[in-house]
Specification:
Elements: H1 3-19, H2 24-31, H3 35-42, H4 49-59, H5 63-71
Helix pairs in contact: 1-5, 2-3
Length: 74
């Protein structure tokens, strides 16, 4: 994926979490990892099914739906 799409993915995730009353920082606290790690997973710099699952759970969607939005733009 291009850098632009990955940036859009992270910003989309942050926006959706805010709508649900959450944040990347809250996810990081709940998982006991740094907020930098969560941000890197959201932007595609790192991979972590655990982080993606936590985000998907907060958004009440599946990981496939979460990531599927961005596969269309590739």
């Amino acid at each position: 994926m291009s850098n632009e799409i990955l940036l859009k993915r992270r910003e989309f995730i942050k926006y959706q979490l805010r709508l649900k009353g959450s944040s990347l920082a809250e996810i990081s606290r709940e998982l006991g990892i740094t907020s930098s790690t969560v941000s890197q997973v959201c932007s595609g710099e790192r991979t972590s099914k655990r982080v993606l699952q936590a985000i998907a759970d907060k958004l009440e969607i599946s990981i496939n739906v979460l990531l599927g939005e961005f596969k269309k733009e590739v």
